[in-house]
Amino acid sequence: MAITTKTDVANLALAELGARRITDYTSDATTESRSCHLHLDHVVNTLLRRHQWNFATARVALVAVEGTPIGDEWDAAWTLPTDMVRLIRIISGDVCNPVRSFAIEGRHLLTGLLTEVSIAYVSNAVAVSDWDSLFVDAVTYKLAAAICQDVAQNPTLQASCLQKLESLALPAAQTADAREVMSGENFGPRELASQSGLVRSRFLSYARPPYVPTA
Q: Model-level pTM?
């Protein structure tokens, strides 16, 4: 069965608990539906915060906030998108020198003096039909654990769902996702060193070819 709606995801969690299916997680007048409606969005946002998911990555140019008191530490404030749950990186004009000095306060990104700022971020506005299937598994187990007390009143089953989430579903989803992007989450020490501006400049200063990490 294709998973295309949050009701589908809710029914996967209910099936894990051996509970009855629902037809609409937002409107069914059942304990199962009310519990799923209470917990599902929070569960999704929590899991989105835990990794730089490729399927949920979005990019946007930020708009500067005019006239916002920032203090002595920062020069500019930028409005963050409402669907952002995790910042991945700040994109400036110089790819080799990403912006590393910044802060997030409320729904604002604070930086030094920059003329333009774009960001890559994890969005919670991705349609369920575009979720990675392994992420769906992780949401299923976490949601099942969250609603277990309401639906099944079985602490042992709740603990089993959490164990499956943390030891199986989430690691599998994060590992598969990280292998599909040149992400720092997938780099070892040698790879990280190869991207250092200091390492690159020293090799160039001695007319050597760029440093390439070996296995």
A: 0.81
End-to-end CA distance of the chain: 42
Please report where in the chains the tokens 């051996």 appear, as a residue.
18
pLDDT, tens only, 89-148: 998 766 666 688 899 999 999 998 888 899 999 999 999 999 999 999 999 999 999 999
Q: Is the pLDDT of residue 149 over 60?
A: yes
Question: What whole-number distance in Å separates Cα of residue 18 and Cα of residue 142?
Answer: 15
| Residue 154 zone, left/alpha/beta (φ > 0; ψ -120 to 50; rest) | beta
**C-alpha distance from residue 37 to each of 7, 15, 56, 178 (Å):** 9, 16, 21, 30
CA distance 102 to 19: 47
- pLDDT, tens digit, 9 for 90 and up, residues 185-210: 444 444 445 555 555 555 455 555 55
- In three-state secondary structure terms, 81 is coil
Task: Report residue 1 as tokens.
Answer: 């069965």
- What 85-88 contacts at long range (C-beta under 8 Å, 24+ apart), as own/partner pairs, is 85/45, 85/48, 85/49, 85/121, 85/122, 85/123, 85/124, 86/48, 86/49, 86/52, 86/121, 86/122, 87/119, 87/121, 87/122, 88/52, 88/57, 88/119, 88/120, 88/121, 88/122
